[in-house]
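Hi support team,

I submitted a single chain yesterday and got back a structure, but I'm not sure I'm reading the token output correctly. Could someone confirm the output below corresponds to the sequence I sent? I've pasted both exactly as they appear in my results page.

Thanks,
R.
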Amino acid sequence: MECPFFARVEPEDFWYPSENEDTTRGYQEPHQRQNGKVELKIEPIVNGGGIKTKAIWNDFKTTRFLQETKNLLEGEHLNSIPMEPNPTISRAIDERIGSQLEAYNVARKTNQGRIKRYMNIFLRRKTENLARIIGHPATLNEAYKPPSMTLCSLSTMMAALTAMTTENQKIYFYEADFKNYFPQIPVGWKVEEQMGFTMKRNKRPRAEGKSESHLIHMTQRVLTQGWNCSTFCAQSITWASILYSGDNTWLGETVGTGNTSPPAFIQIEHPMGKGIIIVIYDNILVAMNNETLQEKWIRRLQSNFKRYNIALKYAHETVNNCRFCGIETKIENNEVQWRTNEEVFLQWKTKTIAHGTAKEAYSIGGVIARQLYVQRASNGKYRDLFKILREINSEMAESQHERWRERNYVNTERKSEILDALAQIDNEWTTQKRKPNIVNPLFLVSDATTTKLCWILMDQKGTILGKPVSEKVEGNGTEKQSIDVCEALAIERALATNDYRTRVTHHDGLVCVVDNTPVGRSLVKGYSMSEPLNKVIEMILGNMTPLTLLAAVDIPTDENLADIGTRGGDWESEEAQVRSKMTATRIARSMEPIQNGVRWIGREMIKVKKTDGEGAERLRM
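Hi R., thanks for writing in. Yes, this is the structure output for that exact sequence:
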């Protein structure tokens, strides 16, 4: 499947399809020609429903996220959800498509009475003449939301590789990608009966000489990309293929069996060496700084792929370089360097706004934003571009997004601005830009609700400077600000206080600690695609002088000390003491990635427990 690793431009969802993906239509008959050229056919599917999930459930009886995956795939979660049968038949697919799906063991014929719900089916172009079938079980998606799950960020990956890279140290990489992964994963009947569809079979009776058709009812018996639980299940099963150890050999991994969601990555600490393993659904990256340890991990994975009958697209072994999920990485002169895959980048440079549609313009904006993210570059010279994109986004929202494909929507001036910006971006290698001299940054810990703001100033050890400040959100009383804007306002208000102004001369940079990902990422990028949020971001970046923003630290809400202030809590309570220690611990542990040049320190990068920070100063008011 297509890997979203690093391609997503958070916090806003820039939508830009891949070069080969056709998202302009819903379901298309296979005999229809695309642009008058070629016929679309279903891409071949291997090992349909072939992964041995029962073996996984048996091997991981006490691992919570895998037991949750079992419940999802077998439909046990549906037992507690009141769902009335709704056998509304969706548009039928062509017989040739249905027959292929049946031959690939992806779908099967059944009686109409056995289907509880029908899902929408549509094609997505993969190559010039091959497409993928996507099933969208809308009712099933509305009925249940899977546990939250995070993916590894570019910052986390590069920080881990940097920590592993010492003088004359080689990094050994192993990359694996599963073949048509979702169709390899079988679902139980309780889920299958929620994924019904129909196939149109044409007949031509001899007597009348007229063609007629009738419907064949079918169900999809494997995981579909359109189900909102699919990525959770895929991530979990991939981790099962990594973590199982038949001979109980420990290779430096630490994964809690009580975790409700699959990990984004695991760090390896072993007497032989260090490493990191990253999973993005069907993509695996294993990186170790010891060759023997790497070989042991590869043997384990190869054994587990056979054990669970997982078909691979490819597996590569390299030294000091890799190409994982659209990012090229190399180790030179004890330094980690990375850039966007060069072939992909060159394709992006050929993008045009040939039809003048908002979709084409936004697609190019997504490419530029992604490159700025990958290169950790300033967006200064692209401010006009992002202003245009925000205007387009606002205009599309007002029209319920009906005009995304309207031709000649983008005028000549806008088109020129966007294409000029595309011409300016490059694909030079990027490094961590280490900052070892940063020893005393000022940390601003903040939180907000739509009615209240709170902020706290702390030093690099997590010691509170002054006192926490809480105040009400200013407004006209008739219209509430969005939570993202309020979270940003807490930072903006803190920078305007005398307390901040009197302390800046004693510190060598500012670090914002937030539990709101859109705000944190927007601060690091220097802009937001949301116009109201962008206004506050610009005020923040303009008012923090003479300090500059070193980084943003992502903190879970249940650790954030400032959350006490927004909820009107007791600063002397036991909860406040625990949060104070956890916040201090996260701050102290963020110093190493800050000195290594990491700008966005995701919450998954630092592990903090309630028992951590025992030596921290007790919170006193």
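A quick pointer for reading it: The chain has 19 helices and 24 strands. Let us know if anything else looks off.

Best,
Support desk
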